[in-house]
Amino acid sequence: MIKDGTIGMQEDISKVRLSYGRAIAKQEFLPRFYEIFLASDPSIARKFENTDLKKQQELLAMSVNMVILFPQENKIAKNAVGRIRESHQRSGLNIEPRFYGFWISSLIQAVAEHDLEFDAALEASWRKILQVAIDYIIEGY
Ligand code: HEM
Fold this sequence. Notes:
Structural class: mainly alpha
Distance between the termini: 28 Å
Bound molecules: protoporphyrin IX containing FE
Number of strands: 0
Strand content: under 5%
């Protein structure tokens, strides 16, 4: 079944996938994301105190793809995001919902710096797409 909104989302998903492809092709993109994200709030930096950021960057590179595919009801994406929703909940990594706004703005800033085709319309597509999986993850907190 094709859900309401899925068709309208498709174009945003395509644009965001291409944008992500252009950004991630740049070596500095993922380290830059973590630099911005960890600097955005002291409690976020504290959460990653004992994290191997090199490994974390690889995990993130894959999971952002899953987050982008999530709104079109992709089964693999649904599973992957569902797993993140479980690991990040209160009884697990305990990632408070307020942190996700920082995650979105950090990712968008890093994309803006690395995707040469980035503009306001593309930013709107990014925000629209990311919010779907984020809402689902926060709902599980
Ligand atoms: C949609 C947004 C996010 C995605 C896609 C994501 C993805 C992931 C993935 C794939 C992992 C490793 C596997 C796992 O534990 O599930 C992870 C671990 C982690 N995430 Fe997230 N995450 C997101 C948001 C956040 C936010 C907002 C925070 C806030 C601080 C956060 C903090 C962490 C921490 C502390 C770990 C564990 C790191 C370690 O192993 O030391 N994540 N995340």
